[in-house]
Amino acid sequence: MTESELPLPVHIIRSEKRHKTIAIEVQSDEIVVRAPIATPTARIEALLDERRQWIQKIWARRADTPKSRDDFPASGLWYLGERLDLKCVSSVLREWRVEPRDGQLLISGPLRNGYPDEVKRVVYAWYRSEASKILPKRLRALAKEHHIEIADVRIKDQKTRWGSCSSARNINLNWRLIMAPPWVAEYVMIHELCHVREMNHSEKFWKEVQRAMPNFEDARDWLRQNGHLLAW
Questions:
Q1: What would the pLDDT profile of 115-168 be if each residue is shown by its tens digit?
Q2: What is the pTM of this model?
Q3: Which residues contact residue 7 at a Cβ distance below 8 angstroms, ignoring those fewer than 6 apart?
Q4: Which residue of 23, 44, 54, 155 is most buried, as measured by CB atoms within 10 A?
């Protein structure tokens, strides 16, 4: 096995403090191997080969996990893959209005003291509404295209997943996917649709994903690198 067969570069740390154990850790940008100082490189390579599927599973799971953020961004909101600056305008209208326009997410309404919390609530509601209108429709179109029968589709506020699929063929989608480029959101949908046929992350499952979306690895990499921008 060569290092190129692994999803990340390998960093080997040899230490005199370690006795017989070799530890493998999959980090965000590399695979760290901690081994006794006298461990032959061939032994480390053999162990990496043995644990290759486990390494790929951990790396894939990391790509499929939103990276949560507690703060509400004052700028850099995303909608359908486009970065928008937040602009708030006071209005005599009692109802709030949200509109993406000219590189901005324009919020107009009855601004008051402490309005950031109110704006966050309005933006959140708008995103959820947009996600509910757009994502299920696209998911059902993909299900029809690939001849996959599904039951219910729900939009959820999931903190640790972009999507999920139950044994009853119900699919949940994270509302934050409305922020992602449509082709990236489509990867998540394809991923969950393939779980209808394969409720695991086996080699057969990933072949199903690749058959439905040959460039799925590009979308998975986009989520891995940019998913934190969509989470708040």
A1: 667 788 889 999 999 999 999 999 999 999 999 999 999 999 887 789 999 989
A2: 0.70
A3: 55, 56, 59, 60
A4: 155
* Measured CA angle at 219 (ends 8, 126), to 5 deg: 130
Neighbouring-strand partners of residue 84 = 77
Residue 212 — φ and ψ, nearest 5°?
A: -80, -30
Whether the CA torsion 220, 83, 178, 186 is positive or negative: it is: negative
Neighbours of 213 (CB within 10 A): 22
Q: What is the pLDDT of residue 29?
A: 61
Domain residue ranges in the chain: 3-63, 77-230
pLDDT reported for residue 2: 42
Distance CA 96, CA 219 (A): 34
Q: Is 131:78 a contact under the CB 8 Å cutoff?
A: no
The residue with tokens 């993909």 is 142
User: Is 77-230 CATH 3.30.2010.10?
Assistant: yes
Q: For 161-190, b where at least 16 C-beta lie within 10 A, e where not — what string?
A: bbbbbeeeeebbbbbbbbbbbeebbbbbbb
